Amino acid sequence: MATAQAKAGRREWIGLAVLVMVTLIISMDMTVLSYALPFITADLEPTSSQLLWITDVYAFVLAGLLIPMGTLGDRIGRRRLLMIGAAVFGAASVATALSTSPGMLIGTRAVMGAAGATLMPSTMSLIRNMFHDENERRAAIGMWAAGFSAGGVIGLVAGGALLQYFSWGTVFEINVPIMLLLLILAPLLLPEFRNPAAGRLDLLSTVLAFVAVLPMIWGIKQFAEDGMTWPPVAGVLAGLLFLTVFVLRQRRLADPVIDVRLFRAPAFSAAVVMNVLANFALVGFMFFISQYLQLVLGLRPFTAGLWSLPAAGAAGIGAAVLAPMLAQRFRRAYVAAGGLLVGAAGCLVLAQVGDDSGLAMVVVGQALMTGGIAMVLTLSAELIVSTAPPERAGAAAGLSETGSQFGAALGVAILGSIGTYVYRQQLSGGAPEGVPADSWATARETLGGAVEESRTLSATAADTLVTLARAAFADELRVAALAAAGILVVTAVLAAVLLRNVGASVPGQDPSGGPAGADDTPPVDPDAAAPDGAGTGGDPATHAAQAASGGHLDTGSPVVRIGPESTTPPARPAHPVA
């Protein structure tokens, strides 16, 4: 029977602060570019195609490499991979800031995405090694999730502030001090962990994972911009084909990149589903909020970012405070469903905004939505890394982040397509008096296009065009909000059903989470695998906690765990999951 878990000390909590800062920077880099694009366009003069790649290449490469990099960390050491990624990320940030051509900027942003893919799963999987007490681990993951949720909003505010006084390159240079701090503090504060029983990395599987995720993410994003055309359809179909080949190969390998049998655990499967659908609603709808604040209400980018800060605060409270606190008292099914319903309520508030007023509703609705969803993202991350065996935590973390990217891209594509249809239907009539046909055609495409065209018209015609376009966009936002609310309600039902038995033993296992009739033989001590003997710092209590945890999901009640305990180091099992 598992013994009580050792509590984390000051070293672990300071180390967590470092990991949260890294996560914050990675999340900021997904949004900080948005305000810099006009300055980059004026300076480097990219073509429309190059501008698209400048915007998307970071997220594309990041999503494609998350799973392989998580697996690589399990093999070579998670702290080592984190430090390699930090060095590359910092150097690539400097190169990006100094880019002198669109091609150079695209290349350096791609390198940043590759480095970011080493950082994200490493931070989450290290938390799994640093915090052995379940309540502390849930709180730590909550802080991690809060940093990631807040980073996107902080990126908007920081980008708007920096661009008022400095060149566009500064939005990337702010990464460098954090990466330098990580390189200094990581050897002092973070444990090392690698799986001593891992075989060699299968390069073909790594390539298959990349070519499966990348074209699907690209195709889904293109649906939002170009509609149902052949290139994005071909991208999604190609991704699905490679994904099928990837899964079939993983089932045959003794040392797979992703152990597909992890999905046999209800907690793991439910967490992945919640992660994808919650990000679908959250990120997909944020696309509308930023445009509403700037193009409908006429706020400047920096001001719009400031009004989004309450949402960042709500995300922090939901992820770092409410999720850990409520999960100690109530079943995860209730907490997850409750958070999703709060998010749905926020979407219903957002569905009440008007075309000339609605700032208060946007602030309240966005705060409810992000706060509720942040609770769910914390629970899903905790379930994913806690349910997976410790030696697979890096790969599981990579899968979690890939699910986030996939859900976000899917949300932007589907909600964006719904919104575009509504907007064009509202402007389906003939051009108003005084508005040329070509200006009306441009205005029917996007609200931004309508605002730009209005600057070439007379005052009366411009006012008419902008008024109609803003009213159409408000309708678009309201329909998208209702669609997002529906997605969150459906996800709440799925969470309640799929997580209803979390806390009960897996069939064929005893209540302690191990195989029926087996003793509590501890797994390989992770510290023994650390190249420098780091890990827990030699603390006997922590060593005991590691031996006791053994990959269990310690719920305070019966435990959910996948497969049998590890055996002695020389006997590497053919497969870690029963």
From TrEMBL:
PANTHER family linked: MAJOR FACILITATOR SUPERFAMILY MULTIDRUG TRANSPORTER MFSC, METHYL VIOLOGEN RESISTANCE PROTEIN SMVA
InterPro entries: MFS, MFS_dom, MFS_trans_sf
Gene3D superfamilies for the chain: MFS general substrate transporter like domains, Multidrug resistance protein D
Swiss-Prot/TrEMBL keywords: Cell membrane, Membrane, Transmembrane, Transmembrane helix, Transport
Entry keyword annotation includes Transmembrane helix: yes
Low complexity: compositionally biased ranges: 506-533
UniProt keyword Transcription present: no
Compartment(s) where it occurs, according to its Swiss-Prot or TrEMBL record: Cell membrane
Protein name: MFS transporter
UniProt organism field: Micromonospora humida
Domain called Major facilitator superfamily (MFS) profile: residue spans: 15-503
Bilayer topology annotation: Multi-pass membrane protein
Transmembrane segments: 12-38, 50-69, 81-100, 106-127, 139-159, 165-189, 201-218, 230-248, 268-293, 305-326, 333-353, 359-385, 406-423, 479-499
Region (Disordered): 506-578
